[in-house]
Specification:
This protein is an alpha/beta fold. It has helices spanning 22-28, 54-60, 74-92, 108-115, 125-138, 163-173, 182-197, 201-205, 241-260, 276-283, 297-304, and strands at 20-21, 41-43, 51-53, 63-69, 97-103, 121-122, 143-144, 146-150, 212-214, 220-222, 230-236, 265-271, 289-290, 312-316, 332-333. The chain has 2 domains: 20-189, Glutaredoxin (3-Layer(aba) Sandwich); 198-333, Glutaredoxin, CATH 3.40.30.10. The strands form 5 sheets. It has a 5-stranded mixed beta sheet with strand order 13-12-11-14-15, with helices on both faces. Strands 6-5-4-8 form a 4-stranded mixed beta sheet, sandwiched between helices. Strands 1-7 form a two-stranded antiparallel sheet. α9 (241-260) links the parallel β11 and β12 (265-271). The two termini are 42 Å apart. InterPro entries: Nucleoredoxin-like, Thioredoxin-like_fold, Thioredoxin-like_sf, Thioredoxin_domain. Belongs to the nucleoredoxin family.
C-alpha cells in the first residue's frame, strides 16, 4: 500500500521508524526467576552459541555498544540492517568496535530469529531477563531500538547518555558515525554546515568515487558542467501521487527556461523512491538529471537540507522566481545560505 500524499520523510531512518517503548516490552515479557549470578560471557551468532568472555572483549575493543532490540519491534527490524551495514564496514576497515545485543524478545525462538540477522554478540537469552531490567535502569532506556556506546569502563562515552542518539547518528551518517560520540556528531554536523553554505557543488552532490550526475538514459554528466547555473534539487518519489502532478508542471517550466535562458538552469532529482525500479519509473518522465539511486548522496542531501517531507524543490544559487513565469508552481525549501555554487 502506497504511503499517503506528502508523507513525512526522515533522513535519519526509514519512514516507518517510530520509537517503541520498553515499557511495553516489560509488560508483555515474562520476568524470569532470579539467578545466583549473571553470566560473564556473551554468545556469538553461530549455531553452537559459542561463548565469548566479556573480559576478552574489554581487552581488545576500543568501542563497545549495547544494542537493545526485539524481533516483535518493527522499528528494530528496520534499523538492524542499517546498523549491520555500518558494523560490517567498520570491522572490514579494522576498527575496534563490538556490539552486544540485549534482547527484549518474549521467548527464545523470537530471540534467535532476530539474532540470526546479526553478526555481533549477544547476552544469552536465559540471562537476558535479569540483565535487561538492570541495564534498562542503568542506562534509563525508555524506547527501542536503542544503541548505547560504552567505554571500556562501562560508562556512556563522550556524554551520550541515551542510546537513542546513537541510533539517530547511525541512521543519519552510517559508518561515518563511528565512534558514535558527541564529539563525532559535532564534527559531522559542522561538515554538513560547510557543504550547505560552502558553495561547492562537488562536495554537495558528489563523493570521492563520483564526480557526475546521470540523465534518464544513464549518461554521466560531470558536476563541473553545473558551475554558474541555478540548480534546483527536486525531492520526490514515484509512489507519491502529488509528485506526478508536480513533475508535469515542473517539466513545462524547465522546458520554457531551456528556451528562454539556455544553459542557466538545471534540475537534479533526489529520489525518495523505495526501489531502483521506482526510481527508473520516476526518471522515465523527467528531462533533467539525477543523483544515482545507489548513491549515499541522496540521503546526505535530505539530511543536510533537513527535508522532512515530499514533494519539494530546493533552489541553489540565484532566486529562481525572477526567471519563471509561474513561480506558484514551484514550492521550495528555503536554502539557509543562498549563494552561487561553483563546481568544486
Amino acid at each position: 500500500m502506497a504511503p499517503p500524499p506528502h508523507r513525512a520523510f526522515s533522513s535519519s531512518a526509514p519512514t516507518s521508524l517510530a520509537p517503541t517503548t520498553v515499557a511495553a516490552a516489560r509488560h508483555k515479557c515474562p520476568t524470569p526467576s532470579p539467578r545466583p549470578s549473571p553470566k560473564t560471557t556473551v554468545v556469538s551468532p553461530s549455531c553452537d552459541d559459542q561463548e565469548v568472555p566479556l573480559s576478552s572483549i574489554e581487552e581488545r575493543t576500543a568501542c563497545i555498544c549495547l544494542f537493545f532490540s526485539a524481533h516483535w519491534c518493527r522499528p528494530c527490524r528496520s534499523f538492524t540492517p542499517t546498523l549491520l551495514q555500518a558494523y560490517t564496514a567498520l570491522r572490514s576497515a579494522g576498527k575496534s568496535v563490538e556490539i552486544i545485543f540485549v534482547s527484549l524478545d518474549r521467548d527464545e525462538a523470537s530471540f534467535r530469529d532476530h539474532f540470526q540477522g546479526m553478526s555481533w554478540l549477544a547476552v544469552p537469552f536465559d540471562a537476558a531477563g535479569l540483565l535487561r531490567q538492570k541495564l534498562c535502569v542503568r542506562f534509563a532506556i525508555e524506547r527501542i531500538p536503542t544503541l548505547i556506546p560504552l567505554s571500556v569502563s562501562a560508562t556512556p562515552s563522550s556524554g551520550l547518555g541515551c542510546g537513542e542518539d546513537a541510533v539517530r547518528l547511525v541512521g543519519e551518517y552510517g559508518v561515518d558515525a563511528y565512534p558514535f560520540s558527541a564529539q563525532r556528531r559535532r564534527e559531522l554536523e559542522s561538515m554538513d554546515d560547510a557543504r550547505r553554505g560552502g558553495g561547492r557543488l562537488q562536495e554537495l552532490l558528489g563523493c570521492e568515487e563520483r564526480d557526475y550526475v546521470i540523465s534518464a538514459d544513464d549518461i554521466k554528466i560531470p558536476i563541473a558542467d553545473l558551475a554558474g547555473k541555478t540548480v534546483g534539487l527536486y525531492f520526490g518519489a514515484h509512489w507519491c501521487p502529488p509528485c506526478h502532478v508536480f513533475t508535469k508542471q515542473l517539466k513545462e517550466v524547465y522546458n520554457e527556461l531551456k528556451i528562454l535562458r539556455p544553459g542557466s538552469f538545471e534540475v537534479i532529482f533526489v529520489s525518495i523512491d523505495r526501489s531502483k525500479g521506482e526510481f527508473q519509473a520516476s526518471m522515465s518522465s523527467m528531462p533533467w538529471l539525477a543523483i544515482p539511486y545507489s548513491d549515499a548522496a541522496r540521503k546526505k542531501l535530505t539530511r543536510i537540507f533537513a527535508v522532512k517531507g515530499i514533494l519539494g524543490l530546493l533552489i541553489l544559487g540565484k532566486a529562481l522566481k525572477t526567471d519563471v513565469h509561474r513561480p506558484e508552481l514551484l514550492p521550495t525549501y528555503a536554502c539557509p545560505s543562498p549563494a552561487p555554487y561553483s563546481a568544486r
